[in-house]
Write a structure and sequence with these properties.
Length: 283
């Protein structure tokens, strides 16, 4: 079982039961090591003391907060634990909100919420209630030296949670706006037709990180001494006539479908009639 990132009790009203949080997702990218160019030896980062002008081991490090220029107060982990709020061990549901009111821009990191021993039945009850009511729970939790607002929602197999950005953390960009008054009805209909032509079921397993795959292929080629082939540069033509661009897009999408339909439904070509052999006069 994966290690939990938080353990405690979930409470709402007078209901309380033990739960654990597990990381639900993490990014994956190609990592590189820093090497000395001359001999390809690994480079080590040295922790250096400026006052004593010498390297120091990690065992001699402490945390400090700079309360004014070049003045620090030392803080250790035990002192941080002493002042941690009750939400460090208790996830308290504050309210329930309609699911369609939660803008995904507020959602940060994702976690699986699993019941701990003895919490299976109330967990299943909350999961089913969230799923049928179409509501999300808004709760408060402290972890990673910070108090978070967290969204609890029903997933396919259980409850999922997402830490939430605070309102002041969401960037308000004045330039980010849309003037829909410029959209013409015919253009909108064509755009909706194009959307319909590209309609598909959401299957996340079919999407892949082409950048990561290309980097790994490049590394493999270098290891084997083969030439690295550059990816062809894409050609993107500027849109001058929106309607014409939409028409061409729809036409391109229809071609494969029409070809497939024609191939599947085309009647078999009739066989050429066989010529009857002429009877000989002798017979």
């Amino acid at each position: 079982m994966a290690s939990s990132v938080w353990k405690g009790h979930l409470t709402f009203g007078l209901v309380s039961f033990p739960i654990r949080l597990f990381s639900a997702a993490r990014g994956d990218s190609v990592s590189f090591n820093l090497l000395h160019k001359d001999d390809h030896s690994r480079i080590k980062q040295v922790i250096y003391c400026q006052a004593e002008d010498k390297p120091v081991p990690r065992s001699e490090l402490v945390k400090g907060y700079e309360y004014e220029k070049d003045h620090y107060v030392e803080v250790d982990e035990e002192e941080i634990k002493k002042v941690a709020p009750r939400t460090a061990t208790v996830m308290e549901i504050l309210e329930f909100v309609k699911a369609d009111q939660v803008d995904p821009i507020y959602l940060e990191s994702s976690y699986y919420v699993a019941p701990d021993e003895g919490g299976e039945k109330p967990y299943a009850l909350l999961f089913q209630a969230l799923r049928q009511s179409k509501f999300y729970a808004v709760a408060k939790i402290a972890m990673h030296n910070r108090e978070h607002i967290i969204i609890l929602r029903p997933g396919a197999k259980g409850i999922l949670s997402h830490t939430m950005y605070y309102q002041e953390e969401i960037r308000q960009v004045d330039e980010f706006r849309t003037d829909t008054s410029t959209v013409k009805e015919k253009e909108l209909e064509m755009a909706k037709m194009l959307i319909s032509s590209l309609e598909a079921d959401f299957e996340p397993q079919k999407y892949h990180d082409a950048f990561r795959e290309n980097v790994m292929k490049m590394i493999e080629a270098k290891v084997e001494g083969r030439k690295v082939v550059a990816t062809p540069a894409p050609h993107v033509a500027p849109v001058i006539d929106i309607m014409e661009a939409l028409r061409k897009s729809l036409a391109e999408k229809r071609k494969p479908a029409q070809a497939a339909t024609a191939a599947a439904g085309a009647p078999a070509e009739p066989e050429a009639p066989k010529k009857r052999a002429k009877k000989s006069k002798a017979s």
